[in-house]
Design goal:
This protein is mostly beta strands and 89 residues long. The protein has 1 helix and 7 strands, in the order E-E-E-E-H-E-E-E. The structure holds zinc ion (2 copies).
Amino acid sequence: MPKYSGKCPRCGKIHYSDRKGDVVVCDCWRYCPICGAEMKPYKPDLAPKTYGMDGKRDLKILMVCNNTAAHPDNSPFYSTQKPVEVVCT
Ligand SMILES: [Zn+2]
Ligand SMILES: [Zn+2]
């Protein structure tokens, strides 16, 4: 039985480990918060970049969900959520 556990602050999932202080990366950041589908890594358009606000905003996008049929506004969801590290204590 694992002795230590940590709770993901984002999704509430409990992670277990035998080692105290172990860092577990919760996989919830990879799933779309709207439809629950697994998202794809976001690749910016290959078109030449323009510098400015839009370029900066693009850089923060990590994942994209193209399951638009399941989204209320029928547009892709862009996620800026980073992997959530959970420390087991
Ligand atoms: Zn999580
Ligand atoms: Zn989705």
